[in-house]
Amino acid sequence: MKNENIRNFCIIAHIDHGKSTLADRILEKTGTITDRDMQEQVLDNMDLERERGITIKAQAVSLKYKDYKLNLIDTPGHVDFAYEVSRSLAACEGALLIIDAAQGVEAQTMANIYLALEHDLEIIPVINKIDLPAANPDRVKEELMDLGIDPDEALLTSAKEGIGITEVLDAIIERIPAPEAELDQPLKALVFDSIYNSYQGVIPHIRVVSGTVKKGDMIYLMASEKKYEVDEVGIFNPGFKEVDELVAGEVGYLMAGIKDVRNCRVGDTITNYHKPASKPLPGYKKVQPMVFSGMYPTDNNDYKVLQEALEKLQLNDAALTFESETSEALGFGFRCGFLGLLHMEIVQERLEREYDLDLVITAPSVIYKVEKKSGEELEIENPSNFPEQNEIETVAEPFVKTYISLPEDYIGAVMKLCEDNRGEFVNMKYLDENRVVINYHMPMNEIITDFFNQLKSSTRGYATLDYEQIGYRESDLVKLDILVNKEPVDALSTIVHRDNARKLGESLARKLKEIIPRHMFKVPIQAAIGNDVVARVNIPAQRKDVLQKCYGGDVSRKRKLLEKQKEGKKRMKQVGSVEIPQDAFMAVLERN
Ligand code: GDP
Ligand code: MG
C-alpha cells in the first residue's frame, strides 16, 4: 500500500546554485509562511550558516500543496557531513537537483547525482538562475545528458524572480512516487536528524517507514538500545506542530525526554518497545571524528568555562568529541574530534562567539595507526604522543579519494599541487569541452593542511574539492618536533613524510621566526626529528622598549600603542619564558 497523498523530497545542489532561495520560494508559494514572516532563507537558521551560506544542520518542513502533503528535507551542503546527507536522502523518495544555468554541472552536482541514484531517488533536474545574462540552459542540458539524465525532464526556474515554481511543485506531485506505507507492520522510523532543546531534550527528526507512532507509545532505539515513552509527536510547520499520530510514509518529530544525544544518533531506527521490528533499517553507522586538535584557553582560568561550553555544544552535535588533555606547553585543555575541517572551524567559532572564549588551537591531525616493534598497536590522534622512531615497526595513515573539478587551463597546476602533496593520480574525465574532474588518492594528512587554499589560489578560485575516505595505507612518517628556546613545544609537533621532513622543518623554523615576537633575550628555534636537528634559526633580542618610539610627548599615541600591544597579547600563550601567538600553532599547516 502507498500513502498516496504524501511526497517526501529533498533539494540537492552544488553550493550557491540556489537551493536555499528555491526552498524559500516553495515555502512562499505553498503559503507555509506568510510574507510577513518571510525571512530570507528560513531553512538556514544558524547565524554561522547564514554568514557562510551553507547548511550545517538539516531541517525539515511540511508543506500543503493542492491535496498533497509535501515534506521537504534539507540536507547539509558540505562533505564533512556526508553521512547526515545520506540519512536525509534515505528519508526521501525524490530529489530536486538544482543546477546553476550559468555555472553548469559542478563536482558537487555529480557527487549528488551519484548519491541520489544510490538511494533510488527520482531525480527532477531544475536549471535555476535562467534570469542571468550568462544563463545557458541548453549547455546545461547537454551536460545532464552526458551524465545519463534525460534533458527533456529538466525544469527551468529563476528562484530569485519566482519563475517556474508552480511547475516544480507539480513535478514533485506527478513524478516523485508516493511512499510505501505498511501500516500494520511494527513501527520502523529512521532518525535523519535531531536537535536539542533544554526542556524536551533531544528531539529526533524521523521518517516513519512502517507502522505508526503516537503519544504514550513505548519506543525503543535499536542501535542505542534505549527505551523511552513518547510525550508528543508532530510535524514541521515550519515550527513544531503537534499531531495525533505519525503514520508510515510521514515525516515529523517526536519528543520522549531523551536527555543525551549519544542515545539518539542519526541513522538509528526507532521501533515500538512492545511490538518491535525484527531488524533495523539498513545503513546505520556511528559517525567517527576524522580530525583532531587541541583546544586550550589562552587564560588557564577559563578551563572550566571551556569544558562547560564543549558539553553544551555536544548536546546538539553528537559528532563532536572531547577529552581533557595536558600539554607541557599549553597547560590544561581538551583534545577535540571533528568530522572535518569545516566542522572544526564551526565549533571554534561558536566557542569564541557564544561563550566569549579566547582559544589557542593546535594544528589538526588525523588518526595514525602505529604498530610498535613490541607488537603493541596504537591509534595516535595527537602528534606529541607519537612513539620514538626506534620503537616503530609500521605507521599507517588514512587516505581519501579526491574529486577536484576545474577548468582545463589549470590541469597542470593542479596536478603538480596534488603530486607535491603525495597524491597518486587515478583518472581524469571531461565534464564538457573545458571543465574536468580529476581524481587522486591522497593522504588525508595533506588535505587538512592548507591544501584547499593552495588549490583555490592556483586556479584563481575556480576549482572545487570533494573527497571520500578510502581507508588506511602504510607510509614512511616521522614526527617533526619544534624546540623554542631549547625546550620542545609539544603542541607544535607534527607528523610528516620522511622525504619532506627536512624541507618542512626549515620553512617552519623560518616562519616561526617571523611570527614569534622578539623578547628581551635571544630565542633560538630548532626543528628536529628525534635527536637530529634539521633546521635552526635565532630570533634576535629586542632592543628598544616599545614606548621609546614616542619621544615622551604624545600621551594619546602612547595609550594607543599600549592598547595595541595588549590586543596583540590576546591569543598568545606563555610557553616557558617565551610568548607564542596562536598563528604559530597554525603555521605548522602551511606547506610551502
Ligand atoms: P545555495 O548555496 O544553493 O543554498 O544557494 P543560495 O540559495 O544561497 O543562492 C546563492 C546565490 O545565488 C544567492 O546570492 C542568491 O540570491 C542567488 N540566486 C539564487 N537563485 C537565483 C536565481 O534564480 N537568479 C539569480 N540571478 N540569482 C539567484
Ligand atoms: Mg543554502
Task: Write out key terms for the chains shown.
single chain; alpha+beta; eight-stranded antiparallel sheet; 33 strands; binds guanosine-5'-diphosphate; binds magnesium ion
What does this structure look like?
Strand 21 (368-372) and strand 22 form a beta hairpin. The chain is built from 13 helices and 33 strands. An eight-stranded antiparallel β-sheet has the order 11-10-16-7-8-15-12-13. Strands 2-3-1-4-5-6 form a six-stranded mixed β-sheet, sandwiched between helices. It has 592 residues and is of the alpha+beta class. The chain is 25% helix and 34% strand. Magnesium ion (MG) binds next to helix 1.
Give the structure's gist in a few sentences.
The chain has an eight-stranded antiparallel β-sheet with strand order 11-10-16-7-8-15-12-13. It has a six-stranded mixed β-sheet with strand order 2-3-1-4-5-6, with helices on both faces. Strands 21, 22, 23, 24, 25 and 26 form a six-stranded antiparallel β-sheet that branches. It is 25% helix and 34% strand. It is of the alpha+beta class and 592 residues long.
Topology at a glance:
Blueprint: E1 6-13, H1 19-29, H2 47-52, E2 60-65, E3 68-73, H3 82-90, E4 94-100, H4 107-118, E5 122-128, H5 137-146, E6 155-156, H6 165-175, E7 188-197, E8 201-210, E9 212-214, E10 218-221, E11 226-229, E12 232-236, E13 240-243, E14 245-247, E15 251-255, E16 269-272, E17 291-297, H7 303-315, E18 321-327, E19 331-338, H8 341-354, E20 359-361, E21 368-372, E22 377-380, E23 392-407, H9 411-420, E24 424-430, E25 435-443, H10 444-458, E26 464-474, E27 477-484, E28 487-488, E29 494-497, H11 498-515, E30 523-529, E31 532-539, H12 555-569, E32 572-575, E33 578-581, H13 582-587
Parallel strand pairs: 1-3, 1-4, 4-5, 5-6
Antiparallel strand pairs: 2-3, 7-8, 7-16, 8-15, 9-14, 10-11, 10-16, 12-13, 12-15, 17-19, 17-20, 18-19, 21-22, 21-23, 23-25, 23-26, 24-25, 27-28, 27-29, 27-30, 30-31, 32-33
The chain binds guanosine-5'-diphosphate and magnesium ion (MG).
